[in-house]
């Protein structure tokens, strides 16, 4: 980001003197804009880092869900094969 403070400040000072209210106001406005841009860039960086972390977590959770679904299917099939028929019917009614 270019520093426009010096260019604007020097131009205004040569016309209006070193302590003019307009120069001070322009300097303050420029510094506020710079500070806001800095805050914005830090926030964007922090949000991007958090999003990357969340994406990684989502991938891990999807993998875990897939594993649990496979385990669940295997357990259901083993229970259905080893269970007596009457017990299977009773458990579905409740």
TrEMBL record:
Signal peptide: none
InterPro entries referenced in this protein's UniProt entry, alphabetically: TSC22/Bun
Superkingdom of origin: Eukaryota
Region of interest called Disordered, as start-end residue ranges on this chain: 1-25, 75-94
One Pfam family per UniProt: TSC22
Biased composition (Polar residues): 7-25
One GO term of the biological process aspect: regulation of transcription by RNA polymerase II
Protein name: TSC22 domain family protein 4
């Amino acid at each position: 980001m270019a520093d426009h403070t010096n260019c604007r400040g020097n131009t205004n000072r040569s016309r209006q003197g070193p302590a003019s209210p307009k120069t001070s106001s322009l300097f303050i406005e420029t510094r506020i804009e710079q500070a806001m841009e800095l805050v914005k860039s830090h926030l964007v960086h922090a949000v991007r880092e958090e999003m990357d972390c969340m994406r990684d977590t989502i991938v891990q959770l999807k993998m875990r869900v897939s594993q649990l679904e496979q385990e669940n299917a295997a357990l259901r099939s083993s229970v259905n094969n080893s269970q007596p028929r009457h017990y299977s019917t009773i458990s579905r009614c409740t």
